[in-house]
Amino acid sequence: xxxxxxHENRLLVNNAQNMLESRRINTLLKNExxxxxxxxxxxxxxxxxxxxxxxxxxQQAIALLSVLLDRLTTDTAKEDWLCSQCDxxxxxxxxxxxxxxxxxxxxx
Length: 108
Ligand SMILES: [Zn+2]
Fold this sequence. Notes:
Number of helices: 2
Bound molecules: zinc ion
Mean pLDDT: 82
Number of domains: 2
CATH topology of the largest domain: Alpha-Beta Plaits
Order of helices and strands: EHEEHEE
Number of strands: 5
CATH class of the largest domain: Alpha Beta
Strand order of the largest sheet: 1-3-2
Largest sheet: 3 strands, antiparallel
Structural class: alpha+beta
CATH architecture of the largest domain: 2-Layer Sandwich
Radius of gyration: 14 Å
Helix content: 25-40%
């Protein structure tokens, strides 16, 4: 098992997991429930961690995540958005709702 991603923004980690799982990479979250007890600003040791179960998936996972991170750094002007289908809060970096996979540009 290998750690591939961790971030203070749990939405990003959830999105990262969603992306890897959608490509049939088996993952595991650690510290999934840690921050709830810590308040809004959590120390780094409670950041949610995304691990791949099978180390042969590690390189592919890193490659996928690098694409994700590229978009995070280039899309900083965009704002977070609420899914029109399920009202889930989504980070600006993502075009699709992490929960129901609706497109962010779908009207109403
Ligand atoms: Zn949604």
